[in-house]
């Protein structure tokens, strides 16, 4: 059984988070992951507080285990959602795309565990100083908005500058990734792409099929010119975004090309115009399963690898 201080800190069985995924990880998926012994996370994305409250209540009706909410700090509704998580007494908040310092006191006073996503050592140091409870070091292999560094490089450097528990995210889809993350100094993992094909994940079947059929080179990064790179599957939309980035189109027009495209992928399965966020690890995701099986399998596969690691030492 893989156990770490993260399990004690949060009262979870396996040190596995299902990463918040905008337009995708709702109360149903989060509850299924938490019932499986990991930590399910509802994504607030750009949604208003009322939506997030509804999803929290759905999750709470489906599980007695702790679950979390991921707050995208760039969202126009971030202030609203920051209050909702306090009112609803959510166990864990993860944050992305910014600095959560102005909310920290309220969340800590409410007993919420705050676990920011960090893409760099500087961010890790800042979040440690601000009183975070743990950190998620997310490498650029991952799906969604990404930083510059890869997981292999980022995780040990983050572990070197903090005493907080660190979760590794980005490029982890099986027990080998979990074992490697622990070897790098992490005490848990956050997984996104593999949960896209969980049976309880309510996205359009076209999205799931694209993930299951993806190969190692199936993803592309766009948005670098706008300062917010995003990793998604290669599709007609992402290829035209990529080309437009190197054309003389204005930044405003380029930004406009991406608006509303996540919903077209997740809800409508629009293969032409949707933006199918996914990590490089999509090439390793080839089986739909219940979320609980994914959580358990990740850890069960890591166990013999970690036990066998002493074979390297002569
Ligand atoms: C479809 C998709 C949507 C995502 N949306 C968010 C989000 O709204 N907020 C966030 O902090 N991270 C987001 N992420 C990142 C995940 O939470 C997670 O850290 C990442 O997927 C881990 O890497 P992996 O995709 O290689 O497993 C998203 C990832 C994916 C694949």
3D architecture notes:
Helix content is 41%, strand content 15%. With 314 residues, it is α/β, with parallel strands linked by helices. It has two domains: 5-202 and 285-303, TIM Barrel (Alpha-Beta Barrel), CATH 3.20.20.70; 219-277, no CATH class. Strand 4 (92-96), helix 5 and strand 5 form a beta-alpha-beta unit. The chain is globular and about 55 Å long. The two termini are 26 Å apart. Bound molecules: flavin mononucleotide. Flavin mononucleotide binds next to strand 3 and strand 9. Flavin mononucleotide (FMN) binds at residues 19-22, 24, 43, 45, 70, 72, 96, 117, 138, 141-144, 169-172, 190-193, 277-279, 281.
In round numbers, the mean pLDDT is 97
| Subunit organisation of the chains | single chain
Strand share of the residues? 5-15%
Which ligands does the model contain, each kind named once?
A: flavin mononucleotide
What is the tally of beta strands? 11
- List the secondary-structure elements in sequence, H or E: HEHEHEHEHEHEEHEHEHEEHHHH
CATH topology of the largest domain: TIM Barrel
| Structural class estimated from helices and strands | alpha/beta
What's the helical proportion of residues? 40-55%
Contiguous low-pLDDT stretches (5 residues minimum) are none
Task: Kindly give the count of domains.
Answer: 2
CATH homologous superfamily of the largest domain - what is it?
Aldolase class I
Arrangement of strands in the largest sheet: 1-9-8-6-5-4-3-2
